[in-house]
Write the structure tokens for this entry.
Amino acid sequence: MTETTTPRLRPPAPAGLSEQARQFLDAETPFTSHEPPDDPLDTEGWLRYVEAANEALLQVLSERLPTALPELERERRTINGVPTFVLRPGHVPDEADTPLFLDIHGGALVLGGGEACAVTATGAALMRKAITWAVDYRMPPLHPYPAALNDCLAVYRAALKERPPERIVVSGGSAGGNLAAALLLRARDEGLPMPAVLVLLTPEVDLTESGDSFRTNLGIDHQLGSLIEVNRLYADGHDLSHPYLSPLFAELAGLPPTYLQTGTRDLFLSNTVRMHRKLRAAGVEAELHVGEAMPHGGFGGNTPEDLELAAELHGFIERHL
């Protein structure tokens, strides 16, 4: 997704960043040539856009994986009626007490399905001493809200039959962060137990885009622009401020310990810091990490800055599992 207003001149990379992070900031997003249709009713146009943008996304994600992948068992299953990729690194035993990660992919609530879902989860799955379930949830234009949320909830119900809740982690980045938070709100409201940890990586928890950084970082974040039209497509006429659509506006009491991550150039910076403050106000243990000059999604995953925050996340999860 690209900015929808006149592009702003991005400031130079600040001192202290690694060379890899500087190169990432200088690069252009691969999605600049793929613009969504203006008409939300243009279903064929949206499907063409999703197909083209997914091809670009898959290429980028594949290039970020190690050239020689460690042993990884991968299986596509249907779990509680939902297509799900099950990923288990070779060093992880398939045992009853092995932690289970429910991984919810990003992609502006319209992208990242199919093979991209599996590849998105692969890098993180390889770093975990756990089994990962990557949910290939339904998306617009054919399946608007609440299809994706229903799918995530169905897989979470299945996870609770496989593991005690204290051995489950729910994780989502960007749009996946929206669904991860909304999933736990639905689960709480329906009387289901909470997992050990909730992970929100630059989460899209406010579909109304009301935060300050939606203006201050528009054009500064070269990975992302306003998604308001896509958000409306996803919401399918529902109020964008409903807590299951914008979890930032929910009552958050009862959610599990939560790790949040963003960057100073992230368009969703306001989403993340506001969510952190609301969680704390609700009595939820919440830890916030902000990367210097990081745009949405970090610097690609393999820079020293990315790896430092990945270590922080690993430590947070280990303390709560």
